[in-house]
Design goal:
Number of strands: 17
Order of helices and strands: EHEHHHEEEHEEEHHEHEHEHEEEEHEE
CATH topology of the largest domain: Nucleotidyltransferase, domain 5
Number of helices: 11
Radius of gyration: 24 Å
Number of domains: 3
CATH architecture of the largest domain: 2-Layer Sandwich
Largest sheet: 5 strands, mixed
CATH class of the largest domain: Alpha Beta
Shape: globular
Distance between the termini: 43 Å
């Protein structure tokens, strides 16, 4: 049931969502979106399923108020994924910091997030995706490649949390996994040692006996090439996240010389990753990421101010809508804490405002704008309010 959130996943969700005008209000199915902060450990997580059930009651109330619009069988189908989760004890034992559950006729999606989200449940004409955009497109997300000459671990996180990635089948975890029978003689006699620190649950530490140094070097090069190829193909190209290398100083240069991963940052952490626990690892990696994070956000804010002064940017919704429809927006900054209830009238190219989200046909205008920009090849970044260059919930930078 759990899915991995990637740019491709997000685009697949958005490909189904076309902003609807008021002539298209009656559709086969509404879209249900639930966001909730969760907890990783007992006893904090005891209340999570109770809060979840209370959010689901919001759906039940909203759908019941439109019983003449949607038949009972459809309402039951829409609520089933939520009911299943509510009674799944194993689900609640393995949460992170937030969950997202999306449902519409014939389809549902579940995501676990590494950051809390405001509790929110809405029935609308589109899925509410802005918190997902933030989860995927904030500048502080990154991946960490911990590497020794014997083993590899991959982590993903942000400034506050770091979690190990369960490597997919086909991605080697050790030099033996990568080279198998091609491993040279010096690595054939091995001794197993427990691996502490960021390595987590242990791994093999192998020591050659009687082998030549050049054979060891060849094996390390081949191992590193296999890791670079696997991580790039299965993770970096999909997540499009910065990748920070954590390894001993002597291996930093070797790996970078052979790497073809465009997401690998030029600066890494030169230390034995096995000597760090998970929180120490996060702190050292964030010390590398933080300057890049602030630089990116500040640069975009400055670009908006400069573009706006030349008529190439706007924070007015009507102007932004017109530019989004025309494919003129290069970058759209969205305030992470802003919601604008309403809908886009595509025929008249106008925004129809609403007072709140209680009507199932009302969505978030900022969501719809973000979707338009992404579908037209632009970039969308959800930014904390304190870093926004405007107070109007968004800032658009035009291509021309």
């Amino acid at each position: 049931m759990k899915q991995t959130l990637t740019p491709q996943t997000l685009m697949a969700l958005m490909s189904q969502l076309t902003p609807k005008d008021d002539k298209d209000a009656k559709r086969d199915s509404p879209y249900l979106s639930l966001y909730q902060s969760t907890h990783r450990q007992h006893p904090d997580n005891v209340q999570d399923p109770i809060r979840f059930k209370n959010l689901v009651k919001t759906f039940e109330s909203s759908l019941s108020s439109t019983k003449n619009l949607y038949p009972e069988a459809l309402r039951v189908e829409l609520l089933k994924p939520f009911m299943d989760i509510a009674e799944d004890d194993d689900f609640w034992r393995h949460t992170l910091d937030g969950i997202v559950v999306l449902s519409t006729k014939g389809e549902s999606h579940v995501f676990h997030l590494q950051r809390p989200v405001p509790d929110f449940a809405v029935v609308a004409d589109n899925w509410h995706i802005k918190p997902l955009l933030r989860a995927q497109q904030t500048a502080d997300k990154f991946q960490v490649l911990c590497l020794t000459r014997e083993w590899v671990r991959l982590y993903e996180g942000n400034r506050n949390v770091l979690d190990e990635v369960d490597l997919t089948e086909g991605v080697p975890r050790t030099i033996t996994d990568a080279l198998g029978e091609e491993l040279s003689d010096p690595y054939q006699k091995v001794s197993s040692y427990g691996m502490g620190g960021a390595g987590g649950h242990g791994g093999d530490m192998r020591h050659g006996h009687g082998g030549k140094k050049d054979e060891l070097d060849i094996d390390i090069d081949r191992f590193f090439r296999a890791i670079d190829c696997s991580v790039s193909e299965h993770y970096s190209r999909l997540s499009e996240l910065p990748l920070i290398l954590v390894t001993l100083p002597e291996y930093q240069g070797i790996f970078r010389k052979l790497s073809h991963n465009n997401f690998l940052l030029s600066e890494g952490v030169s230390i034995d990753p096995g000597a760090l626990n998970i929180d120490q690892l996060r702190q050292k990696v964030w010390a590398v990421m933080e300057p890049a994070h602030h630089e990116k956000v500040s640069k975009l804010a400055d670009e908006f101010r400069n573009a706006s002064s030349k008529g190439l940017g706007s924070d007015q919704l009507d102007e932004t809508l017109e530019a989004a429809l025309s494919g003129r927006i290069r970058t759209l900054l969205v305030d992470a804490d802003s919601h604008v209830p309403g809908r886009l009238n595509m025929d008249n190219r106008k925004i129809i405002r609403a007072d709140n989200f209680s009507d199932p046909e009302v969505g978030d205008v900022l969501d719809d704008l973000a979707e338009l920009v992404l579908k037209n090849g632009g970039e969308t970044m959800v930014v904390p309010r304190e870093h926004m260059p405007t107070q109007n919930g968004h800032a658009a930078i035009y291509r021309y």
